[in-house]
Amino acid sequence: MAKPSFSTPLGMVDILPEETPSWRALEQIIHEEAAKFNFQEIRTPILEPTELIRRGVGQLTDIVTKEIFAFKKGDTHYVLRPELTAPVVRSFVQHHLDQRGGVQKLYYIGPMFRAERPQKGRQRQFHQFGLEVIGSADPIADIETIAFMMRIYERIGIKNFTLKLNSVGDPESRERYKNVLKEYLEPHRAQLSELSQQRLDKNPMRILDSKEPEDQEFITKAPIIQDFLNEESSLHFEQVKNGLNTLGISYILDPYLVRGMDYYTRTAFELSSPDLGSQDALAGGGRYDLLVEEIGGKPTPAVGFAAGMERLLIACEELNISLTDPTKLDVYVVSLGNAARQWALGCLPTLRAHGLSASMDYSGRSMKAQMKEANRELARFTLIAGEQELQDEQFVLRDMEQSTETKGSLDELVSLLTKPLS
Ligand code: HAM
User: Fold this and answer.
1) What residues line ligand 1, using a CB cutoff of 6 Å?
2) What is the CATH number of domain 331-421?
3) I need a surface site. Which of 94, 129, 190, 288 has the fewest CB within 10 A?
4) Whose CA is nearest to atom 25 of ligand 1?
């Protein structure tokens, strides 16, 4: 086949008609479960001011330094949103959502953009669903956030995963830990990767997230943050763990889990799946008690998570989990001759008004070709009209699976089609 003149940008894909039913089914599950947890949906623009993402996600993160799609229009700098926590917080502050009273429990579904090197499970445009609980410091908020995340995978039937849990502490605990970590790493500076050497001065905790082979031996022997948590952060972490135990949600403690954004405080978690290959993170999140203030609001504690939808669908494929039944068309109207074709056209709205999906031939093809198309469309029934049928006002309804036929007026056949199954 000739190479097409145009194709999707690198790392971006079309979601084709045979794939959209799974996406819709997944979205439906997310909406239903969010309603059960009493979360409300929020939708924000695809573009955000560059400064919001820089400040929200963190100047030194990979996302900001390497992965944002940015452009300038007039005097304004924009980015395609790489994630939704900072934008949702922007919206919370901009619209004074705190004045609605209570804790804001918001969820979202939508595309994000990161200029990463594409590979299986890693795209430049990908989709996340997630939620943000803004206005609660209570460990219950952390636990419910994790419980919601787990509920989606449980409902879909993905069970093979690991929930890693950590506390990255509050600023006071972190400051103490950072100093200790720096002291520990400083003598090994020359052996660290170039990136980690830079991070050693600016943000040593980021080194724990390094995937560079030369850093690993130092990371595995590094002091752990749990030994430096103050009493408040320690207690909060204990309560989160207890709540997860109460709900029967298993986790493993990973003292080196720091996540890729700078806004996290206290709880941090990540869900990974062995069915995904190298891009194994299904979802991740944590608490970010300082972000609302950072973005210009009043100090407001918050927690949330986001999950990759492509990765969830890859896991479904690996596990042979289907989220949909094959789409079935209820009735394909087969017509022969001009008059019958006109009749078929008029018949479609009647069938649809009775809640049936209905279609017909758009290209004036032979009866045989129309029957073939009905089969390809997985039509449950064909409604057949030729000249004789039109004259008699008696049409043929063919059950495509059973290969049986019934004759009758349109009204009779429609009531047959819409009669509840006994
Ligand atoms: P994140 O860990 O950067 O967190 O992304 C969450 C999930 O999005 C990942 O676990 C992964 O499944 C998916 N993901 C990320 N990048 C890609 C990519 N290039 N291609 C495909 N999937 C990808 C966040 O975005 C935070 N905003 C989560 C959060 C919400 N924290 C607090 N609230």
Assistant:
1) 83-85, 114, 116, 121-123, 126, 128, 130, 132, 260, 281-286, 288, 304-308, 310-311
2) 3.40.50.800
3) 190
4) 83
